[in-house]
């Protein structure tokens, strides 16, 4: 299932990010802020359980999150979305998955993975700003499932229809969230209009 989170603040901040004249500091800050705004919608249906507490005035039955949350950035651009989400879910743990494209097989090849202990029971939020062909997102979901994850959400900033279709076909059980669905991929696999190379813009590389 696809949800495009349409909100004036997100549209405003994403336009700043898309602008080629926006520098690394403002790009990162707006990505952080959009991550926080998106997580409000992404976590809307997280399960809660009752908890008995005392207010200064009276006993009270409140609510707490019933499951741990694990944020799983796909290295390296996914790292740019972690802190904005952590601001809203400070108890979240972070799993990491690193992959690069094998130039012979053209398939994503995993070079690093690290998971917290309770990963299989957690709500897993995989993050990667750009959903282009969907290859790395599908591979990350494959890895998360292979490590026992039962409930997975995929959060990207900008998606191309090609990537959305590929993820929905490979993993129909995963809820996909975008801040914007763009027009298409170009012949080099970049999203049009997109925002360029997210990793380079986050980390100031070329
Ligand atoms: N990765 C990026 O960083 N940008 C794109 O447009 C596509 C993939």
Automatic annotation (TrEMBL):
Residues spanning the membrane: none
Taxonomy, superkingdom: Bacteria
Sample GO molecular function, one term: GTP binding
Sites where the protein binds 5-phospho-alpha-D-ribose 1-diphosphate: 76, 101, 128-136, 197
GO cellular component, as recorded: cytoplasm
Activity regulation remarks: Allosterically activated by GTP.
Enzyme class name: transferase
Known catalytic reactions: UMP + diphosphate = 5-phospho-alpha-D-ribose 1-diphosphate + uracil
Record: residues binding uracil: 191, 196-198
Function: Catalyzes the conversion of uracil and 5-phospho-alpha-D-ribose 1-diphosphate (PRPP) to UMP and diphosphate.
Name listed for the protein in its UniProt record: Uracil phosphoribosyltransferase
């Amino acid at each position: 299932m696809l949800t495009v989170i349409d909100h004036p603040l997100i549209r405003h901040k994403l336009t700043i990010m898309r602008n080629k004249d926006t520098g690394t500091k403002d790009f990162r800050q707006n990505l952080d802020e959009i991550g926080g705004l998106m997580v409000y919608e992404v976590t809307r249906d997280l399960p809660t359980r009752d908890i008995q507490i005392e207010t200064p005035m009276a006993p009270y039955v409140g609510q707490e999150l019933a499951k741990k949350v694990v944020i799983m950035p796909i290295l390296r651009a996914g790292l740019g979305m972690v802190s904005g989400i952590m601001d809203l879910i400070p108890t979240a743990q972070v799993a990491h998955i690193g992959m690069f494209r094998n130039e012979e097989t053209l398939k994503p090849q995993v070079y690093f993975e690290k998971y917290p202990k309770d990963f299989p029971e957690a709500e897993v939020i995989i993050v990667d700003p750009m959903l282009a062909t969907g290859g790395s997102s599908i591979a990350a979901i494959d890895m998360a499932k292979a490590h026992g994850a039962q409930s997975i959400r995929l959060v990207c900033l900008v998606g191309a229809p090609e990537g959305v279709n590929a993820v929905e076909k490979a993993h129909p059980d995963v809820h996909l969230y975008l801040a914007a669905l763009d027009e298409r991929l170009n012949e080099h696999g970049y999203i049009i209009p997109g925002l360029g190379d997210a990793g380079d813009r986050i980390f100031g590389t070329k």
